[in-house]
Amino acid sequence: MPVDYEKLGLFYLGKRYELASSARQAEPILYDSKDLVTHAVCVGMTGSGKTGLGIGLIEEAAIDGIPVLAIDPKGDLANLLLTFPGLAPSDFRPWVDPSDAAARGMTPDQLAEEQASTWAKGLAEWDQSTDRIAAFKRAAVRVYTPGSRAGTPLALLRSLRGTANESDEDSRARVTSTAASLLALAGFVELGPHDRELTFISAILTSAAAATGSADLPWLVQQIQRPSFDRVGVLDLETFFPATQRQALALRFNSVLASPGFDVWLDGAPLDIGTMLFDAAGKPGSAIVSIAHLGDAERMLVVSLVLNALLEWTRRQTGTGSLRALLYMDEVFGYLPPVANPPSKLPLLTLLKQARAFGVGIVLATQNPVDLDYKALSNTGTWFLGKLQTERDKSRVLDGLEGVTSGLDRATLDKTLSSLRKRVFLMHNVHDSAPVVFETRWTLSYLRGPMGRDELKRALGSGAATTPAEPPRTGTAASAPAGPPGTPSVKPILPANVREFYLLADASVSEYMPVLYGAARVHYTDTKRGIDTVEDLHVAVPFTDGAVPIDWERAEPSSATPEDLAAAPPPTGAAARYRPLPPAGLDAKRYAAWTKDFEQWVLRAERLMLYAAPSLKLTSNAGESERDFRQRLQLAQRESRDAAVQKLRDKYAPKVARLNQRLQSAGDAVAREEQQATQQKTQTMVSVGATVLGALFGRKTVSLSTLGRATTAARGVGRSVKETQDIARARERLQEAEGELKALEAQLAEEIAGLGATDSTEIALDTIEIKPKRGAVDVRLVALAWRPV
């Protein structure tokens, strides 16, 4: 009979395994997804089944609607792309190895048929239908390949600047890790926290110049040669780092920049954790960052930057006790060592300490427990322990468990660890009463081994490695019309009372066109919905030569705020060209009329668009996209579900406690009755034996004492019969108590299963429009602006 494992908030990991009989049991091992908030570590030698367990965890998370960020140093996790709901041999055929088929005396087609049959049989043995594969495929799997176009490249070095709302703590952690990673890329290894190169690069990344301009790797090379500051600490720059030595450092970075194929690091998808975990509709997926193709220094750069980005994203989330997202790292060796301090260690330790408060769980896999810092192990609530290579490894694992767990039966665990085989794990979970041994379930994905670049391209398809195009900024050449013939090469002379500004200008601009720039603050209020917010509006509208030189209906959003506008163009090597300004643009009085028109247009055209989920009684925040709102709905659903489950458990807890007490009492009664029956039986046998012996070897005449002993023996036999009846009644009461407890537990499980869950992407949303009221528009600026072409 199939096992029931599709339960609310539970991951189906496998089935209980009996080591004594070396047999798999029917009982499914269901892991509460909330327990991953306290993180997990998986330890086992090569071939123990760690990757299969990790892929199973990712599959369960995807089915449960939990986004996963996976760092893949070995190339195994790309197997998550190989899911075949039809289990047809033709699906497996491209992925079988012809040399493997030849070695087994088979054709590739025959081997594909065998693999399809093996996978169908394996899924059936583990009570999994192809519907589970289809459910997993509904969550997208995206593979990012930094430094390569085999998958989707990541633009890790496009900008070294932090985000606008970055906290001081996040900034310090990001700068230190980024500086160490960049230096490792340039060949500097084993740097200490106070080494000169690390301090110097960190000073550049925290300087005022880093907040402006491109702040990319070419910019860094220039800053190393000519920094924007002249002191580091209390020392002048030349004393701290002389120009000749700075030049040598710049040459090393320039060599990295000039290396063949390095342009891949500068383009591709941005390192945005929210975009990687959720699609445009807010639907969660699995993002795999594959680094198997990189060298050690490049791997460290990628891992440290990704971990810092995840830490920054985590700290921007709201607190929760439910599992919001999962980080899985398939091999953590070298990234969290107990003694050294690579750039990846600080963000990973910080995540282990702080991420649980935001609902972000972390799972780390390694072959040897000595690869992990003890501070990391102390922050880990679940240990998955597989087959270990040496007795020393086993001793280290037991030492680590003793360090985080009290009352540990070391001898029993030692014996258990020595008996483990492939795919069999000992799970120690601080949320459970005792460790459990289980065999991992059959994976939904086809595990064919690590994928190379060509195989990854084939698995992703022809369009998978393309880089998502970035929308052009307002005011760039992408949004400007072609210049008309006869564009003048000099700027028109403006009246003194006409103010002018420059939008997003830099030294590379050679041509400008005139636009009318408008900026306003709009106050939206809705007492009924409790909305009171102020939104900034920045737009630009081109001038025309027609009867209506300015039509605000043609306005386009601008990313420039009034504070971003420049009063003068940047210096350039050649004179910039300016497109003609219509005569209306030279009349200062027209700007006052355009300002009033701007205010009326804002009142007429602008709306605060919000989303509402009536079923959950939630409304989006101002500026919150539908994707972000659906992410919040998903978390609200999970929190509501977890709270409802806990409420049900609390409701049943007194009944369960009473039945457990009754069960204990009934068990004690059975033991007591059995003990009394044994004592009575022994006493009766002695009495009967004494009577028989007295009759055979005593006096020839039957004495009164002999008759008395016979009578006593007969009464003893009667009491023995009564004790047997008492045992039967006590066992009946024990069985009744057990039956009532099982019925109560089944009733609780049925009510929990009845709670149900809805995919956040399927929740119907209402669109709310809030109009600004008269007097709610504060016009900050309406002025002529020159936009780069």
Task: Explain briefly what this protein structure is.
The chain has 789 residues and is of the alpha/beta class. The chain contains 20 helices and 22 strands.
> Strand arrangement, largest sheet?
2-1-13-12-11-3-10-9-4-8-5
Number of helices: 20
Q: Uncertain regions: pLDDT < 50 for 5+ in a row?
A: 462-487
Work out the number of β strands. 22
Distance between the termini: 70 Å
Whole-angstrom Rg: 36 Å
Helix content: 40-55%
Can you give the mean pLDDT? 84
Q: Specify the structural class.
A: alpha/beta
The percentage of residues in β strands lies in 15-25%
How would a crystallographer describe the biggest sheet?
A: 11 strands, mixed
Outline type: elongated
Could you name the key traits of this structure?
alpha/beta, eleven-stranded mixed β-sheet, 40% helix
What does this structure look like?
This protein is α/β, with parallel strands linked by helices and 789 residues long. Among the domains are: 149 residues, no CATH class; 131 residues, Helix Hairpins. The protein is 40% helix and 16% strand. The protein has 20 helices and 22 strands. The longest helix is centred in the last third of the chain and has 72 residues.
Task: Furnish the topology, listing elements before pairings.
Layout: E1 10-18, E2 23-32, E3 40-43, H1 50-63, E4 68-72, H2 89-92, H3 98-103, H4 108-125, H5 130-137, E5 141-144, H6 168-185, H7 196-205, H8 217-225, E6 231-232, E7 235-236, H9 237-240, H10 243-258, H11 273-277, E8 286-290, H12 296-315, E9 325-329, H13 345-354, E10 360-366, H14 374-377, E11 382-385, H15 391-404, H16 410-418, E12 424-429, E13 436-440, H17 453-460, E14 500-502, E15 511-526, E16 531-542, E17 556-557, E18 577-578, H18 588-605, E19 608-613, E20 618-619, H19 626-697, H20 704-753, E21 766-770, E22 777-788
Parallel strand pairs: 3-10, 3-11, 4-8, 4-9, 5-8, 9-10, 14-22, 15-18
Antiparallel strand pairs: 1-2, 1-13, 6-7, 11-12, 12-13, 15-16, 15-22, 16-17, 19-20, 19-21
Helix pairs in contact: 6-7, 6-12, 8-10, 12-13, 15-16, 19-20
